[in-house]
Amino acid sequence: MDKRRLLVVEDEEAIRSPLAEALASEGFDVETAASAAQALETAERTDPDLVLLDLMLPDGSGFDVARRLRERGPVPIIMLTARGDEADRVIGLELGADDYVVKPFSAREVAARVRAVLRRAGSAEEEAPERLALGEIELDPAARTVTRAGGPVDLTRKEYELLELLMTNAGVVVTRERALEEVWDTEWFGSSKTLDVHVSGLRRKLGDDPSAPRYIHTVRGVGFRFAARRELERQ
């Protein structure tokens, strides 16, 4: 089996080289970049399976790099940040990052998170079920696309996976714990607030009024429920 290729984007040599060496010793094929420009060039040239991305780069923001990477395709991203501000982590997750690690961190922790994210990404690429169509929303698991009234809906990886979970269980309450376990994996160590952020993003993109939602309903203290087909047909 071919080695999974990682791209480590980190401007501090004292962090970049030891982390790259440690990940290589774990069996990964590792490329490195020290700037935003170099990260985008290397990603274009090597097509990595996962990107470890520092937020603070000498020639730009890791957020901007994440946006550009997302334009290229659904490559998994783990944010590396020295910031303790939860808002920065939430912004990264909204941009489609799959996880984040706060410095200082151990190479073993990073390797474990890399494997968890790659495992989730691999599971998502397995044979997909048939299309789901509820109301004006249609989700195509094979193509990993979503349309609303026939028009494309641009979702991040996590927004798509959360919507797929909710639509697959339409009419049934998906608990917060289940959503975090199935979408963010049992190895997710972040704040559960990210779930609310992603639900808010989904509602906005689906044209759902949070005060009177048509599709995604909040079950206070429990979780969320996508409207059943019969509910939507009555509307």
Based on the model shown, name its key terms:
235 residues; alpha/beta; 5-stranded parallel sheet
How does this model look, in words?
The chain has 235 residues and is an alpha/beta fold. 44% of the residues lie in helices and 22% in strands. It has helices at 13-25, 36-46, 62-72, 86-94, 107-124, 157-168, 176-184, 193-206, 229-234; strands at residues 5-9, 29-33, 50-54, 56-57, 60-61, 77-81, 99-102, 132-134, 137-140, 145-148, 151-152, 173-175, 216-219, 223-226. Strands 2-1-3-6-7 form a 5-stranded parallel β-sheet, with helices on both faces. Strands 8-9-10-11 form a 4-stranded antiparallel β-sheet, covered by helices on one side.
Q: Kindly state the percentage of residues in helix.
A: 40-55%
Overall geometry comes to elongated
- The average pLDDT score comes to 86
Question: What topology, given as strand order, has the largest sheet?
Answer: 2-1-3-6-7
Class per helix and strand makeup: alpha/beta
Distance between the termini: 51 Å
The amount of beta strand, in percent, is 15-25%
Largest sheet: 5 strands, parallel
Q: How many strand units?
A: 14
The rounded Rg comes to: 19 Å
> Low-confidence segments, ≥5 residues, pLDDT <50?
none
